[in-house]
Design goal:
single chain, 4 helices, mainly alpha
């Protein structure tokens, strides 16, 4: 019976011994979302020619029409390969950040008396 249980345990944990980890924790996912949002906002600002993080109105006017927004969105779509590469980098950075934090917590817990 013990051998059967150990074999089943081996089957259940085999995925952790091959391939790559697939973190789905809240911290990891939120880091990815923040990075993605920041990257998309920066690309839209660049496409619209914005250097500041806000719109000026009240007749110091900077406004945009539908054509400006369409052009900026089109530029985002045309650079999808760059976004795919950036997405991979964001995921790697988030994984590294979360792993480092988990490792520090684990190390600290092992040092406590």
């Amino acid at each position: 019976m013990k051998d059967g249980l150990l074999n089943k345990l081996g089957e259940l944990t085999a995925y952790t011994k091959r391939g790559h980890p697939l973190p789905i924790g809240k911290s990891f996912l939120s880091k990815i979302q923040v990075a993605r949002t920041n990257r998309q906002i920066a690309a839209l600002r660049k496409g619209l020619g914005l250097s500041r993080p806000f719109f000026v109105l009240k007749d110091g006017s900077e406004s945009f029409d539908a054509d400006d927004l369409e052009r900026a969105a089109s530029e985002l779509r045309s650079s999808s390969d760059q976004f795919a590469a950036a997405e991979i980098i964001d995921q790697m950075q988030a994984y590294y950040d979360v792993s480092s934090k988990d490792e520090q917590l684990s190390s600290h817990a092992n040092q406590s008396p």
